[in-house]
Amino acid sequence: MTVFVFFAVGLPNHFGAFEFLELKTYDFRVRFLAGATRPSEEILVVILNQDSIDWANRERGWSWPWPRRAFAEFIDYMNVSGAASVAFDVIFSEASVYGAEDDEAFIRSCGDFGRVVQTVFLSTQSGNTFSWPDDPDLPLFSAGDFGPVLSGFDLTPGSGRTGAQFPIAGLRDAAGAIGNVTGRPDSDGIIRRAKLFVLFDGKAVPGLSAASLMVSGMDGRISYNEKESAIEWQDYSIPVDSAGSSLLRFRGSIDAYTYIPYSAADVLQSAESYALGEEPLLYPEDFKGKHIFFGYYAPGLFDICSTPISSVYPGMGVHLTMLDNILKQDFIREIPRWIPFLLVLSVIALINLLILYSGRISFAVAGSILIVAALSGAGIGFYKLGLWIPVVAPFAAVVFAFLTATLYNYATEGSQRRFIKSAFSQYLSPAVIEQIIADPSQLKLGGEKRDMTAIFTDIRSFSTISEALGDPAKLVELLNFYLTRMSNIILENHGTIDKYEGDAIIAFFGAPVHMPDHADLACRSAVLMKKAEAAINREALEQNLITGEVMEAMVQKGILKSKDDPSPLYTRLGVNSGEMVVGNMGTPSKMDYTIMGNAVNLAARLEGVNKQYNTGGILISEYTREKIGAGFVTRPLSRVRVVGVNTPLRLYELLDLGEDAPSPLADMVSRWERGFAAYEARDFAEALNLFKPIYGENNGDRTAKLYIDRCEKYLSAPPPDEKWDNGVDNLTEK
Fold it and tell me: How far is it, in rounded angstroms, from Cα 406 to Cα 413?
């Protein structure tokens, strides 16, 4: 499944299926962290904005376009200031409308300064020349042997031709360098990258940013480090992709004051004040050693491109960002292609493990959310560190793997769920079944030892009832009526029905789902079953499930005192706790989820022992009594050796739930315990005095009558010490 999902996600990713979405998530990272790093302080921006145009028209009488002498004044002030370079993001491709003298002023200032970068625009669709000018000797890069990557710098691979639009000859000759301003967007029309140089007419023409460094003293000797996929230029390393482009770290928009923008009007006013010996608005020191970018920033004048920062981003911003990244050495690098594949594979494997091996979809959902959150955090965190980590393909892998594994899980485990419900619905409560379905590991096939509690029930003299009914159909109807109501009580208390043996119910608590309070649940079920007897008998008589013939037969055999006795169905229960073996027993073709062991056998024995002690119907062992705490009302009976068990154990009669017990019952139990202590200490007279009132007050308590008879017998003929055996009864009947 992991391989299937990998090919379903990895291959489309390899062929660019997620490129568009990945680019959009990348743009989000760019915008989110645009202000996280500071721009280089070596770059300043001078913009010719609408305020500058209005000022010039008002104060200088200049209409648009400005005369070239305005730019001459600007260059002269930069010369005085000692600027490192001035790069124009403007192409002066035509002569000044103000005449040749106007052009000459600008040409002179550029020549005097010597560090002006003029612009060339290269295009396959426009341009007035197809060759690099022979003169002057403008600085170019010496690309050397870049290998196959060098083709990425060619603007027109194949048979296409690239035209060039240069500034007028005088400005071109006076320039310290010519910088290319051509950019190429990604497939979605957004510029995220820039080239250090492009190939034109066999020449490696620097971009506007690189040309700014060249005029300030750097030569054009560069080399390509294939291992690092980077161009090395003196102390700078510029990472490039196979197309020769560098991924830019954008820091914000120009108008957002990411870079310090000065208006052209302020610079010209400062130049004028400085020339007159007055205090300027902007001191020359403000520009000393700075790389100055000059561009138009008035509505309708500047070129607009789309970048991750904005869909209306000034083109000059791309070039100054390139220079900024070179100076700060914090380009964004794309990780090797094998890492996204490994990331996708890891995500798929992790999701599959969560779904297929946790057994719970909720774990997989939480895990998927955590993985997506981790990928989102990693995408942002690594971008801040200068790495572009793809996140869309891993996101897709999470979704695809989750859906695929979930469908597979439902397909394979659906049958398991149906099997569990079918196999256990007859003898497990719905709540327990849902727990097993949610965590099948709780159900172990085969046998295992567990500390549990077992219940055995039986109806008094049921053979007499079945004989008197005569009709098998009527017998089945009565049994179904009785067993349904009694079984529901067990299931409601999270018990498991082991089996039905005629009128008997065998049940256990503590499996297949572990229950630390299994003894409490079993005893609660036993008490509630006895309390349900009155309603069961009443309904059975009303519905003629127990006929008059049945009642008469039971009276004749002395089971009932009269035909008006309201309790023909009388249940005896034995309850014991201890270590039992539970699991699927039998053969591969016929298995039964059941219990076995000595503790189980003892529970069965206790059910029958009820008859010998004339109890109210529920006997529990000392092992169960130790586990149930104070939530139940019990009274002690003799220690006994039951058939098949040599070690004496204390018996207790379970009388009621603690919260339901009336206060006289608690008083009776207190007196009983004192009387029973006297009985075991062979103080039969004291025991008799305590047992007799209990017998009289409790509607002929037959268990009290049993011990009254014993006390009277022992008072007349005390048992020898060797036969007393500390009051232990050896039971000979099952």
Answer: 10
Q: Which two tokens mark 200? A: 């034109």
Residues 6+ apart with CB under 8 A from 251: 34, 35, 37, 38, 39, 258, 259, 321, 324
* Contact of 44 with 259, CB cutoff 8 Å: yes
**How does strand 447-459 pair with strand 571-587?**
antiparallel
CA gap 702, 616 in Å, rounded: 8
Task: Using the CB atoms, write b or e for 180-210: b if 16+ within 10 Å.
Answer: bbbbeeeeeebbbbbbbbbbbeeebbbbbbb
Single-letter residue type at 387: L
460: nearest Cα among 539, 568, 375 = 568
Quick one: how far is CA 235 from the chain centroid? 45
Please provide residue 292's backbone torsions phi and psi, each rounded to the nearest 5 degrees. -100, 130
Rounded-to-integer distance, Cα 675 and Cα 706, Å = 13
| DSSP conformation class of 146 | -
Give strand pairing partners of 145.
none
Give the three-state DSSP class for 722.
helix
Distance CA 246, CA 386 (A): 12
User: Mean pLDDT across the stretch 368-397?
Assistant: 82
**Residue 158, C-beta contacts closer than 8 angstroms, at least 6 positions apart:** none
Who's near 388: CB < 8 A, 6+ residues apart?
A: 26, 247, 332, 333, 334, 335, 382
pLDDT tens column, 437-496: 666 655 555 678 999 999 999 999 999 999 999 889 999 999 999 999 999 999 999 999
Q: Cα(4)–Cα(10) distance, rounded to whole angstroms?
A: 10
Structure tokens at 352: 């599959």
Q: How many residues are listed for the chain in this entry?
A: 734
Q: Is the pLDDT of residue 589 over 90?
A: no
Helix and strand numbers, DSSP H then E, in the chain: 23, 27
Cis bond upstream, residue 314 (ω within 30): no
The packing angle between helices 518-542 and 472-492, to 10°, is 150
Structure tokens at 729: 């009864």
- Asked if the 444-656 domain carries CATH number 3.40.50.300, the reply is no
Q: What is the mean pLDDT of residues 415-436?
A: 61
CB-based contact 429:511 (threshold 8 Å): no
d(CA 179, CA 176) in angstroms, rounded, equals: 10
Residues 6+ apart with CB under 8 A from 107: 170, 171, 173, 174
Cα 549 to Cα 470: distance, rounded to the nearest angstrom: 10
Q: What percent of the chain has pLDDT over 70?
A: 85
Q: How many CB atoms lie within 10 A of CB 89?
A: 25
Structure letter (DSSP) for residue 151: G
Buried b / exposed e over 340-377, threshold 16 CB at 10 Å, is bbebbbebbbbbbebbbeebebeebeebbeebbeebee
Max CA-CA distance within the chain?
Answer: 150
Q: Which helix (H) or strand (E) holds 86?
A: strand 85-88
pLDDT in tens, 320-350: 999 999 999 999 998 877 776 677 677 767 7
Query: Would you list the domain boundaries of the chain?
Result: 2-14+335-422, 38-329, 444-656, 662-734
Q: Decide if 498 contacts 511 (C-beta within 8 A).
A: no
Where does the pLDDT of residue 183 fall: very low under 50, low under 70, confident under 90, or very high at 90 and above?
A: confident
Rounded CA separation 664/687 (Å)? 19
SS3 52: helix
Whole-number Å distance between alpha carbons of 606 and 340 = 69
pTM reported for the whole predicted model: 0.59
Give the C-alpha distances (Å, rounded to integers) separating 62 from 136, 264, 404. Answer: 32, 13, 70
Written as one letter, the residue type at 478 is L
